[in-house]
Amino acid sequence: MTLNRRQFIGYLGAGAALSALPRLHLSAANPQVVVIGGGFGGATCAKYLRRYDNGVGITVIEPNTDYITCPGSNWVLGGLRTMDRITQRYAGFKTYDVKHIAARVERIDSALQSVDLDNGDTVKYDRLVVAPGIDFKWDSIEGYDAQAAEQIPHAYKAGPQTELLRKQLMDMPDGGTVILSVPGDPFRCPPGPYERASMIAYYLKSHKPKSKILILDAKEKFSKQGLFQAAWKELYPGMIDWVPGTQGGKVERIDVAKRTVFTQEGLTSHRGDVINLICPHHAGTLAQSAGLTDASGWCPIDQKSFESTLHPKVHVIGDACVAGAMPKSGHSANNQAKMCAAAIIALLREEEVPIPSHVNTCYSLLAPDYGISVAAVYHLKDGKIAAVEGSGGVSPADADAQFRKREALYAEGWYASITADSFN
Ligand SMILES: Cc1cc2nc3c(=O)[nH]c(=O)nc-3n(C[C@H](O)[C@H](O)[C@H](O)COP(=O)(O)OP(=O)(O)OC[C@H]3O[C@@H](n4cnc5c(N)ncnc54)[C@H](O)[C@@H]3O)c2cc1C
Description:
Layout: H1 5-12, H2 14-17, E1 32-36, H3 40-52, E2 57-61, E3 67-68, H4 73-77, E4 87-88, H5 91-95, E5 99-101, E6 105-109, E7 114-117, E8 122-124, E9 127-130, E10 134-136, H6 160-171, E11 177-182, H7 192-207, E12 212-217, H8 225-235, E13 240-243, E14 253-255, E15 260-263, E16 268-271, E17 274-277, E18 281-283, H9 285-289, E19 314-316, H10 330-348, E20 357-367, E21 370-381, E22 384-387, E23 393-394, H11 401-423
The site of flavin-adenine dinucleotide (FAD) has 38 residues, from helix 3, helix 4, helix 7, helix 10 and strand 20.
């Protein structure tokens, strides 16, 4: 199935249409839903819980009072956006009568249905939504840990890490080498590292044109690969080299002081003037300590209701959960949040959980007027979230410059609409 733009927008609105659900009685008086994390998953879920029902108490526990989005953070590296323009202010919490507690959750007690906060408070829940995003597997690359990341940024959580990487790029001499190390699947935002390479190349082309980018990849192939590689040839000829895992792309060790990474059991080494090491990751640490993860490091869920298969009345959404074929993206987290909110309201009303459908789009900006995209529609098949056969696809390989320019505009439009939907 190929979607035309109108059908696609119809799918995008699927979550919003659920707000038309009739308001029925809730099984308990004033039930409390607590949401941990105010990212694309948590903030959207809180808003849509309210849109689906007025009688439920909704509390978001998130230590930050602003949210800096990873989407758009590569554009900051390219010099196309400021940090301020990727900072969201949680205006929606007030509009939708959502209580925000600026604290960190330290412990979940699913038997007592409560969470303990780092300010000493305990908050009770009838249903809990856990959306803590990702944390890094610090033991997966020898020599790399949270302290090393202060010198060798991952920049895979937007904020000070983005600023550090941008500063290092600006300080680098012309003719320097930028190394970008990419982990194996699954990881947050599959096209993210390659959009990043493009944005760094865009910056270098105009400021340090003799410089090179070396992508060391643990994988054999990557999202929108043909489109990225064709664009690199056209826009940044000779600047970007990509090395797959079997040809020495998997970084195993780093010597931070010497700014050198090692692959192929130490046989190959590369020195970088700037190294961006995107370390492998797992579900946010809280999900681990709460026993919500399995051996994979991610949270297994019932893919209809997003309820954990390990702890009842606890739902996990966003990057932390295993959502079938859906990639770990802000768009996925936003969609899952709406479906999860609908499921929770149905469960509180002792009704049938609605059958979910989802959509995901990932735009990548390769230059200010050069965008590409990938999209898919998902449904529940045999209890798992699967791509609808024939749905979605990637931008055409033979598109002209006008088409690429329009997709660059759509990328900005996507950012404006998804952040408005999630945070306002
Ligand atoms: C460079 C880059 C580019 C990207 N570009 C795109 C893109 O173009 N399109 C797209 O769809 N996706 C993109 N993504 C992916 C997107 O950012 C993530 O998939 C998305 O943020 C996941 O949302 P989430 O709610 O699961 O987690 P997050 O957004 O990470 O939110 C988790 C929140 O939980 C909070 N938290 C964690 N632990 C606790 C705790 N113990 N107590 C309380 N709060 C806690 C954190 O403070 C955080 O605010 C990109 C990612 C990167 C790195």
